[in-house]
């Protein structure tokens, strides 16, 4: 990164504070049980974890909102929760992170989604989930869309669709949400699910990882940068989106943008570092990208900021977020590389 680029990013980041960004999608409670392993169970060939600590954090779209708040924005989270203990815990965690729960829909019959991860010696041993079987009711989705309409009317500068395939984002709600944003000329950013990939036409940016990108286009996975660039150009042609950001793990990211009738690919490398956990990294990427874009960055500048943020969050264990100060320091460190 050049000195001029760093100064520009610092100026953009100074404008994060108070920007309203709507987040629409599936939220969940992420629980972590951490401990150590000293022996294998005599009952089955599995490790015995001696529990040292337990904690809970916001997951899914709630983690996107927490990431936005950590960067200084004013996220407006629209999602569905039950009326159960997990929902109350989520509400408390959101409030503590500076995220308002005023746009959430609470439904008596909905089971708040929980993901519990057992971690020993920095390694995930097992994960178990609690969630309702079957589809989300029409009335609940209608109430969520009405809440989203009110959030967008309140002055949001971007909409993030956080798709975890848990029922809120289905073809009808995806279409309705995108149409709401289009009427107000609000850019839409998508962290996609493979099964809905081709529904996200005409959005400002979609942010799949490599596996999601190949899976979403229903083509066999191929390794290498050239394969990623060929795939990205196919996605741009198929979806007609303004830009595309394919995240490639330790290989960085590749941004695709339109330049006239052509599509340009810009590779953004990452720096080798120890990776503890990629859980929630996609949430960090889409939140940083959308906020930086809304604050006046070009797609290239927004993608670079998202890359810096991702490199920070994967070095933290568990679902995590990045502060504005951490983002600036990460960018500053590239001045000496």
Brief synopsis:
The chain is α/β, with parallel strands linked by helices and 337 residues long. It is built from ten helices and 14 strands.
Domain count? 1
Residues in β-strands, percent = 25-35%
Tally of separate helices = 10
Q: Given the C-alpha coordinates, what overall shape results?
A: globular
SSE class: alpha/beta
Output the CATH homologous superfamily.
Answer: Ribokinase
The run of helices and strands is: HEEEHEEHEEEHEHEEHHEEEHHH
The unreliable regions are none
> Tell me about the biggest sheet?
8 strands, mixed
Average predicted local confidence, pLDDT: 91
CATH architecture annotation? 3-Layer(aba) Sandwich
CATH class: Alpha Beta
Termini separation: 8 Å
Arrangement of strands in the largest sheet = 4-1-9-10-11-12-13-14
CA radius of gyration: 20 Å
Number of strands: 14
Bin the helical content: 25-40%
CATH fold annotation = UDP-N-acetylmuramoyl-L-alanine:D-glutamate ligase
Give short descriptive properties of this protein.
alpha/beta, four-stranded mixed sheet, UDP-N-acetylmuramoyl-L-alanine:D-glutamate ligase
């Amino acid at each position: 990164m050049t000195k001029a680029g760093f100064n520009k990013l610092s100026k953009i980041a100074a404008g994060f504070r108070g920007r309203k960004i709507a987040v629409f999608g599936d939220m969940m409670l992420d629980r972590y049980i951490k401990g150590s392993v000293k022996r294998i169970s005599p009952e089955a060939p599995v490790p015995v974890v001696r529990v040292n600590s337990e904690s809970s954090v916001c997951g899914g779209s709630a983690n996107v909102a927490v990431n936005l708040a950590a960067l200084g924005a004013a996220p407006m989270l629209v999602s569905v929760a039950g009326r159960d203990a997990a929902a109350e815990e989520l509400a408390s965690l959101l409030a503590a992170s500076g995220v308002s729960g005023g746009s959430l829909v609470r439904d008596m019959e909905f089971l708040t989604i929980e993901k519990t991860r057992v971690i020993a010696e920095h390694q995930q041993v097992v994960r178990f989930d609690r969630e309702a079987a079957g589809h989300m009711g029409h009335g609940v989705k209608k109430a969520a869309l009405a809440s989203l309409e009110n959030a967008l009317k309140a002055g949001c500068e971007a909409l993030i669709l956080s798709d975890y395939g848990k029922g809120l984002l289905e073809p009808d709600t995806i279409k309705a949400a995108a149409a709401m944003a289009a009427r107000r000329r609000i850019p839409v950013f998508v962290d996609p699910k493979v099964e809905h990939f081709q529904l996200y036409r005409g959005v400002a940016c979609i942010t799949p990882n490599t596996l999601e990108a190949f899976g979403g286009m229903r083509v066999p996975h191929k390794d290498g940068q050239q394969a990623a660039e060929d795939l990205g150009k196919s996605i741009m042609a198929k979806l007609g989106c303004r830009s595309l950001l394919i995240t490639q793990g330790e290989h960085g990211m590749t941004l695709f943008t339109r330049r006239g009738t052509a599509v340009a690919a810009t590779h953004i490398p990452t720096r080798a570092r120890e990776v503890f956990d990629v859980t929630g990294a996609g949430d960090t990427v889409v939140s940083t990208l959308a906020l930086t874009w809304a604050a006046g960055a070009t797609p290239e500048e927004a993608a670079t900021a998202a890359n810096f943020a991702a490199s920070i969050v994967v070095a933290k264990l568990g679902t995590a977020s990045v502060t504005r100060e951490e983002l600036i320091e990460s960018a500053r460190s590239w001045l000496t590389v």
